[in-house]
Amino acid sequence: MTAKKIRLDRGVGRAYLKSMRRAAAANGEPKSIVLVGIDGSRGSERAFRVGLKIAQKRSLTLRLVGIFPRPVMMDSSYVALMNQYLDTAVNEILAMLKGYAAQAEESGVPVTTRAFVGEPGGALVEESKSARVAVVGKRGRNRFAGRFLGSVSAHLAAHSHCPTLVVPEERGIDSSTEPRAPEQELAHGDDAADEPLSLIEESKPRAHQRRLFANVSDPLNFDSEVVVGLDVGTEADEMLQVAGQAAQLVDRPLALVSASPLNAAGHWGPNPVEHNIEIPNLRRPYIEHLQGAADHLSGQFPDLTVRWQFFDGTPAGVLSEASRTAELIIIGTRGHGGFPGLLLGSVSQAVLNRAVCPVLVVPTAKS
């Protein structure tokens, strides 16, 4: 169902906004909106705080969008009930948006608000056309319709026209005895955390101070780093540019990561000679791609610390494990090679489901 806009509380009118978009596109000006999906949950509360910080640091405009689906009434006798529901929903969501907008204005950030009735994921994708970045909670519940934002965040990340930042619930470090990182978010019975992961090669040791965790191995400890998952078979210039800007924004070093299950069952027989011959050949494209990406970033962002690591393991396993300690995970929406079939629903879907730190999904191709 196409979303229907109810009301624009603040900001410019629709016709003026369209003219501004056309002018910006004609002049090649960067988009200046931070889009935040709001549903009243704790997840969207945190998404608002993160979006507000981005808007403050980058001098951007905040756009708060509240969306709820229209329930289907099969019996005409329920028309009156439907109207009552919509009146209540409209008033509640506009009041909620007004409260968030007041907080933004107090922080000195320009803000607009919009409320829609319709399909939340589709409406946010449409709004993303004019945004620099979209921010949503990992999960949330619209108390009118019981709609989980988890499905909305996945849809937005898969189809957004701008990078999408998916923000999970905040989790602290367990330091009752010795520091312990939070565990991945695994479904009941999921044994993904037991997947063997081993470091094959890295560019250089970490130069920054980091915390040590009793339940995290040293090669997989990305404390205070921005981690970028790279696909050896995909051009990543746009994603690297976004990654460099993100690392500058949070003032953290960058770690570029690739992974491949080098000795997965069926790749070759249990012949140690053949194994030792094949490993260098298999890892060479990854190493060259990682080093090339690191050189590119160092040239574009000379003040940024950049290093890389290549792992024997699945990409989803490495990045999900990295999320336990990293400041931010950055992945693309499409790809192949080192991160096979990187469509939402494969590697990126797994990382979004399992990650315990924010994940920034960057559109890397459009069909």
UniProtKB/TrEMBL annotation:
It holds the Pfam family Usp. Residues 180-191 have a biased composition (Basic and acidic residues). CDD domains: USP-like. Residues 167-192 are annotated as: Disordered. InterPro entries: Rossmann-like_a/b/a_fold (IPR014729), Universal_stress_UspA (IPR006015), UspA (IPR006016). Residues 34-168, 226-363 form the UspA domain. Belongs to the universal stress protein A family. This is Universal stress protein. It comes from Nesterenkonia sphaerica.
